[in-house]
TrEMBL record:
Signal peptide: none annotated. Belongs to the FliL family. The keyword Transmembrane helix applies. InterPro entries: FliL. It comes from Desulfosporosinus youngiae DSM 17734. One of its GO terms (cellular component) is plasma membrane. It holds the Pfam family FliL. Controls the rotational direction of flagella during chemotaxis. It is found in: Cell membrane. GO terms for biological process: bacterial-type flagellum-dependent swarming motility; chemotaxis. PANTHER family: FLAGELLAR PROTEIN FLIL. Keywords: Cell membrane, Cell projection, Chemotaxis, Cilium, Flagellar rotation, Flagellum, Membrane, Transmembrane, Transmembrane helix. This is Flagellar protein FliL.
Length: 142
């Protein structure tokens, strides 16, 4: 193979590789668009201001006790200001829900998620559906 042919082959391989890479990137960007980006945005959890409710120590059913610190996430700043005034009612709901639980109701991850959902439901009775999440900052049981 002479020198001119060798340069032609190397140039053809380089050009083919460049077109292949460029075509693949172009196809992924424009033709094979996935809807993952849009679904991530629609399923992203709304974030709002955090409102500390307080620290709670309760006797659980069956003789165990639970000590936890709870903060709630509210829909907006205005809701947070309103709920600061309802602090006593929110604390009462938390104490009522927690005192009705047994040790098994707080030990596993699934049980805590169930407790979280129940707290959101009960707190929203006072908060008029302005609480979006309940955060357990600490959770100690014995």
């Amino acid at each position: 193979m002479n020198r001119k042919s060798l340069i032609f082959v190397i140039l053809a391989l380089f050009l083919g590789a460049a077109l292949g890479v460029g075509g693949t990137i172009g196809a992924q960007t424009f033709i094979f668009k996935t809807f993952d980006d849009s679904s991530k945005k629609s399923h992203a959890k709304k974030t709002g201001p955090l409102l500390p409710i307080g620290e709670f120590t309760v006797n659980l059913q069956g003789g165990a006790f639970l000590k936890t610190a709870i903060t709630v996430q509210v829909s907006d700043v205005k809701a947070g200001e309103h709920l600061k005034e309802e602090d006593a009612f929110l604390k009462d709901r938390v104490n009522t829900v927690l005192a009705d639980k047994s040790l098994a109701d707080v030990q596993t991850t699934q049980a805590r998620e169930k407790l979280r959902k129940e707290l959101i439901e009960k707190l929203n009775e006072v908060a008029e559906d302005q609480i979006t999440d309940v955060l357990f900052l600490s959770l100690v049981y014995q």
